[in-house]
Amino acid sequence: MGFIDNAKRTLWEVVGEPALTKAGLYEPADRTYGRTDVPFSPMEKRLHDNPDVTVWFGKAMLDNGKDWSWYQVWEDKKAMRKTGRNADMIFVHGTGVHSGTLASHSRRYLDAGFRLIVPDLISHGYSTGTHVYQRHLDAYTEGLHAVLHDVAKRDDEADGVERRRKVERRTTFMLGLSFGGLVAHMYALHYPNSLREEAKGEYEVPIDGIIGVGPIIEYSRANVRIPWFLQQMIWYGDTYLGLGRVEVIVPHKKCLDKDPKVYKTLVTEDKRSHQGAFRVGHLLCIHFAAEMIQQRAHEIRHPTLVQQGGQDRVACHEAAINFIRDVSATDKKMTIYPVCQHVIYRKAKTEEEDLAGRVACVEDNVEWMCER
């Protein structure tokens, strides 16, 4: 595609489409912008082909009646019978990637008897919306809420039950990686009635524990830096010019991991992941959500586990420590894994490092959920 074609496409995406859509003069024919045509990742395909794993797919419609959050559900019924576990784990992936990133780590959760609910966040993967663009984080939590209720409705229909109350529903945990960790903890603020012990919200789907793995409570100020002039351009561009969709920068690209192949594997080699830079609106979405989660951490009463790499150069350790201190839940814990960087869920080059990092982290959060 030539320069002129790229310029036309960008102008339409950034200015033309938002203006016409806001005026009610245009609706995209494909609300996923072509992402539905991208095939599953090889690891997803291997999981889907596993005869021991039951897989099904769903779309949870949002309140506007136009957009949806796509999700898949994985379960090993033999493991569920063996463990006697009747519990769900909903996975919240990081920014720019998709639900399939859990596939290579799913076996331990399936063996523990958990049913895995694995959605693509709104504006990611097979869910609707301009790729990785939401100005406000509540769009992401709304999508998760819709998915949980869609699965709950299907469960009730399958069991011939009209509508279960919160206290009667399956034990459910929410686990988020990186940006997904921020989204998961924000879910507790946006849906406080999801606490099982809360008297309000009789028909809410309960969340019995939230796990943030390398959550972006705040970016590391020492390593993730956006130049002052660019910060001003981002603010004014969004506030006064409506340029929220403009791609500008990946603030943590160079400090995601010491091995550049990690970013390449997660993003550039995965066609379902976002290939461009972070958009103006998405950067502001993260910024204001991080501010809010720190200011309102004391409102969170859900059982909380935070896991962070000791060598994480993307997420701020101090902010995470202050966050877990401020959370009002009596059941809360933070664990730091000295050998890990930001992408804890990656296979290390040596067995020793892998056992001390990724494997230990997964084992710890599985144990934490099983204890509850």
UniProtKB/TrEMBL annotation:
Residue ranges of domain Serine aminopeptidase S33 in the record: 87-344
Alphabetic keyword roster: Hydrolase
Gene3D superfamilies xrefs: alpha/beta hydrolase (3.40.50.1820)
One example GO MF annotation: hydrolase activity
Record bears the keyword Protease: no
Signal peptide: none
Cross-referenced Pfam families: Hydrolase_4
PANTHER family in UniProt: PHOSPHOLIPASE-RELATED
Protein name: Alpha/beta-hydrolase
